[in-house]
Design goal:
single chain, 416 residues, alpha/beta, Rossmann fold, 9 helices, 25% helix, 19% strand
Length: 416
Amino acid sequence: MSVQFSSAQFGGEFKPNYDESKVPEFEVPNPLKSFRKRKIKNVRQWEKIRRPELLDFFTHNVYGKIPGELKIESWEVVEQSNNALNGKARRKQVDLIFSKNGHRLFFNILIYLPKNVEKAPVFLGYNFYGNHTVTNDVHVRISEAWARNNPSFGIIHNQLTEQSRGVRENRWQLEKILDAGYGLATIFYCEVDPDKDDFSNGIHPLLYTDGQQRPAYNEWGAIAAWTWGLSRAMDYFEQDDEVDENKVIVFGHSRLGKTALWAGATDQRFAAVISNNSGCGGAALSKRRFGETVARINRSFPHWFCRNFMIFNQNEESLPVDQHELIALIAPRPVYVASAKEDLWADPRGEFLSAYYASPVYNLYEKEGIPSKEMPDVNQPVQNTVAYHIRTGKHDVTEFDWEQYILWADKELFNK
C-alpha cells in the first residue's frame, strides 16, 4: 500500500483551539447504525454486525493490527514476599519472557495483593517511569529498559535510577487500593515497547517478516503494542492462583488511558476499563478538534497509531467513526471516563460526550450509561456502568480519582 501525505496532514502550523464556539459543526456517527445504514436494534445485531465492523475499522485505520500471535514462552517469579509494605501485602515481581525470529523480549509485572484476600481482584495499568516509581518499597527492581529523560526524577541518558524511587507514589494510591481489598499490578510500558519513533526494538521485531523494518500502514503502532502487553499480563493472571482473573480492571492515564480503552475493546477478558485524561485517540471525540487534534498527535507521536491514521490529519470530518464507538466496543462491561478541569488539551467535554454517545449501546444490554448531555458539576461523579467525572486540577492521577474508581468497582463488580 502506498499513501501520499501532504504537509498539512502532518500538522503544519498548529495553534490549539480552546474556544467552544470555534468547535466545527459535525455529525456524531450513530453507533447503532451500520456502515451500510442498517439500524441496530438488539444485542444480537450489535454483536454480529456492528461491533465487528467497528472493531475492524479501528484496527486497520487507527491503532493497527497485530501481525501474528506471540504467546508467553515462559514466566518466572524473580522476587516475592508475603510480608510487604509493613506486613499489609504480598508482593511478587514476575518476568514474562517472549522470543521469536531471533529476538528476545521480557517485561516485568510488579504485583501487590492484599494479605486478607485469597483470590484478589486487581487493577492493572502501565506506569511511565518504572515499577520502582509507584512505591518507596526498596525491594522493587529498577528496570534497565530505555526511559524518557526527566532530570527532575534523576533520569538522564534514558536510564532509570534510584533517585526516582517512589516519585509517582501519589498517582497510584497503593494503600487505598489494598485497604479496599484490591491488588495492583503495574508494568513499565517501555519494557514492552520504548516510547519513541523507532520500531527496531521492543516487541515489533519479533513479528516482522523477512526484511521488514517497520510496521505496514495498517499494522500496530506503540499503543497497540502496549495493548498486546496488557493482554499477555492477562494470560499470566489466568495461571496465577492468587489473582481473580475474572475481575481484572485495566487502567491507564494519558497515552496509557488510550491504551487501556483499546485493550478493553480488543480483549473481552478485562472485567472493566478506566480511562484517565486520555484525550485525543482515547476518549475524546476527534471531530471536535478541541485541544490536541489528530494531526498534532500524529505529528508529535508518529509511532503511537498505525500510519493509516495519518489520512485523517486535519481531515477528521471524513472519519466514519469517532471515539464514542471505541468506548461502545467495551459494552456491556463497565467503563469509567475521567477528565480534569484544567486539562483542556485532553478536551474534557469531548471525553464526556464520548461516554454519553456510547451509552445507547450499553442500553441495549440494559446497562445504565450517561443519562444527560449536560456535563456533571466538577467533583460530582456519575457512577453508572458508563461512569464519568471531571475533577478540579490538571493532567494527573489523584487521590480523588482513585477514591471514585474504587467505589465504582465495588458497585459494578461486587454490587456493594
